[in-house]
């Protein structure tokens, strides 16, 4: 199968390319390297050193004995997107080519507009290229569990059957996302659903939980195959950031009361799930939604897990809550379904401690890289637009 | 009260300015004249001749003996938007400054991207300017009934209380819009709702039905005060287009089976409702939704009304269905609530025939303008991206 990965230079994109190549797929990829630029803008870098694309492509070829068809370019230019579809003729398109940061989108009006434009226009262009060039293709679109927000009822996988004033209907589950970035993903979901309805395209829309972890099996033999791992306030995700804090002896910092509940999954589970979705495409014209995570955890619970594993490795680790720069519920009901991937054969790792152990060992090797930029672990971007470092709580 | 009208050069914007001025309000307005440009791009013009802005402003001043604070500019430039808010300090902001055309958004990838970017970024910039400059202001945001689509259950006004798996919650009603344009309005609604939640702004989001009619009372004394009336496939609305067809002896052309049901209201009712909403602001932090229309009609029913009134005026009028260039349900359940505006005091006109009569008389005066461009009354933009004039049905 010919799989085109949009955003192949990223955390998930690069990892997925390695997995699919190891399974014999033909891989194409595009990237505009905006993630590298945005992380620089945050005065940070990846904790794990990654190479420039030419060296990555060389490592890929050395390892898999075949070419990765890479093209540098930006999804917001339709002509570029259409040309890639013409040249590569993908059977599956994995769309990871969006800006994934909530805090980045909340900096100011310009970052809000850029995030939404970048994500929405990129996705529209992919939909048009599919319609015009590869209408039988399968779009695997990365959304986020954050699209749903935290309603006071169970969250189904995309759609729910309800009764209202005596009539029944199967409806998209209402989205209540909490940042301009999360809203951009809601907008995308709505656009992708429409394209499937009016053009008969097919898509799997992945509401993904928060991914953590530093590697998948395919990276073990060659450090040149490592993927990026961010830890700045904008592009680092919760557990990855906690592990980086642990490594440089900075207190782990849950936001506010620290009882936000979210779905999490290790990097290797994310790649396992995406592969399953690619291998089990929907029918032509179908728009289906997966909630992709292993289990729901409370943020403080996670911090305590990192503390426990970190201490086994001889790290001094403390947990100290900081004021919450976000506007979000800190104690809430949260029960999202996650059955459809299990039905496709997803086998959850179910050993978070082991994953954290591996990640901490990886990060300890690169402690100096984190130490050099440790300031970026403390957020200063607030949801009300203010820019000021959060302070640690004195007592809880 | 100081009211800033975004898109003041448009069909509703200009009409609302006249009404509010006649009630003694101080009016500010901005426009980038993109509507004029887009209508030219469709090789069309307004059926009613409207003047350039300097003459419109002069007529306004002659009539109301006060200034209209106009500034030319584009909502997608944040610095421009913020400057206007600083200079004019609006207490109410009526946001009509979006591209309102479904077919225009369906032309190709570039028109889709432009429509969504233009509308979404403009609205984000307005929200940021409110947060930064006038956080007590009241945003009256024009959405569309088309955001809801045509679900097989009743449509509430924005939110509905449901029970799901034994728990209750009040949720935003799911949107299932049918074009990139309609989706842009859904995206806006989601963004505005978020801004109210996280920043404590207040907004009235108007899900408006299809507006028809050529004038409001304030235009009767001076033809320079007329508002635009479009009839091309992109910017003309259903009844207005039927009336233009009647005037140039072209068969009225419902799409497909012609049993699409939609909510409609005359121009003067739209202006009455918007004025009521401005005069009855929500509480700080509140996001409320109105379904703004007078009554639901079947498209064919409307064509027959235009035919009947047209024949009274001596016009030969036929109704002949054409193939449907859109992807939409042509026979469906449709029962949207519309109580909240009545509760605020809205007094519906309830005499569609009289409104059509006035409009036909206005249009007969400018028959030559419609005759010169009558080709644009027959659509050629299809939802599947094809560009080909629709054909009349031979028998039904």
Structure overview:
The structure is a homodimer of 396-residue chains. The mean pLDDT of chain A is 97. In chain A, 56% of the residues are buried. In chain A, the strands form three sheets. Chain A has a seven-stranded parallel beta sheet, with helices on both faces. A three-stranded mixed beta sheet of chain A has the order 9-10-12. Chain A has a two-stranded antiparallel ribbon with strand order 6-7. In chain A, a hairpin with a 2-residue loop joins β6 and β7. The longest helix of chain A is centred in the N-terminal third of the chain and has 25 residues, at 109-133. The first copy, chain A, is globular. By secondary structure, chain A is α/β, with parallel strands linked by helices. The first copy, chain A, contains 13 helices and twelve strands. Chain A starts with a strand and ends in a 25-residue tail after the last helix. The first copy, chain A, has helices spanning 11-22, 34-41, 53-64, 78-88, 102-105, 109-133, 180-199, 238-247, 267-279, 299-312, 340-344, 352-365, 367-371; strands at residues 2-6, 26-31, 69-72, 92-95, 138-144, 159-164, 167-172, 202-208, 210-212, 261-266, 287-292, 295-298. Chains A and B meet through α6, β6, β7 and α7 of A and α6, β6, β7 and α7 of B.
């Amino acid at each position: 199968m010919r799989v085109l990965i949009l955003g192949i230079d990223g955390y998930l994109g690069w990892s997925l390319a390695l997995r699919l190549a190891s399974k014999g797929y033909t891989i194409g990829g595009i990237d505009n390297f905006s993630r590298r630029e945005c992380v620089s803008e945050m005065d940070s870098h990846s904790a794990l050193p990654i190479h420039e694309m030419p060296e990555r492509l060389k490592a890929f070829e050395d390892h898999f004995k075949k070419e990765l068809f890479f093209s540098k370019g930006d999804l917001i230019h339709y002509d570029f997107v259409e040309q890639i579809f013409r040249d590569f003729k993908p059977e599956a398109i994995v769309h990871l080519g969006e800006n994934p940061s909530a805090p980045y989108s909340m900096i100011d009006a310009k970052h809000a507009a850029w995030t939404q434009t970048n994500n929405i226009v990129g996705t529209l262009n992919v939909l048009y290229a599919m319609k015009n060039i590869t209408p039988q293709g399968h779009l695997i679109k990365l959304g986020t569990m954050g699209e749903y927000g935290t309603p006071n009822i169970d969250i189904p996988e995309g759609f729910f059957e309800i009764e209202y004033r005596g009539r029944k209907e199967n409806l998209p589950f209402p989205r209540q996302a909490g940042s301009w970035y999360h809203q951009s993903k809601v907008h995308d979901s709505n656009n992708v659903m429409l394209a499937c309805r009016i053009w008969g395209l097919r898509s799997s829309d992945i509401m993904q939980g928060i991914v953590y972890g530093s590697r998948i099996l395919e990276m073990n033999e060659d450090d040149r195959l490592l993927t990026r791992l961010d830890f700045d306030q904008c592009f680092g995700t919760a557990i990855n950031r906690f592990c980086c804090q642990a490594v440089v002896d900075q207190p782990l910092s849950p936001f506010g009361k620290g009882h936000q509940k979210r779905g999490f999954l290790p990097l290797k589970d994310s790649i396992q799930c995406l592969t399953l979705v690619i291998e089990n495409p929907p029918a032509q014209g179908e728009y289906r939604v997966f909630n992709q995570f292993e289990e729901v955890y409370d943020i403080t619970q996670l911090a305590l897990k990192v503390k426990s594993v970190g201490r086994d490795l001889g790290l001094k680790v403390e947990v100290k809550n900081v004021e919450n720069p976000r506007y979000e519920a800190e104690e809430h009901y949260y029960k999202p379904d996650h059955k459809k991937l299990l039905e496709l054969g997803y086998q959850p790792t179910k050993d978070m401690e082991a994953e954290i152990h591996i990640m901490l060992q990886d990060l300890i090797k690169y402690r100096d890289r984190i130490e050099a930029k440790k300031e970026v672990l403390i957020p200063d971007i607030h949801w009300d637009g203010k820019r000021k470092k959060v302070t640690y709580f004195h007592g809880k």
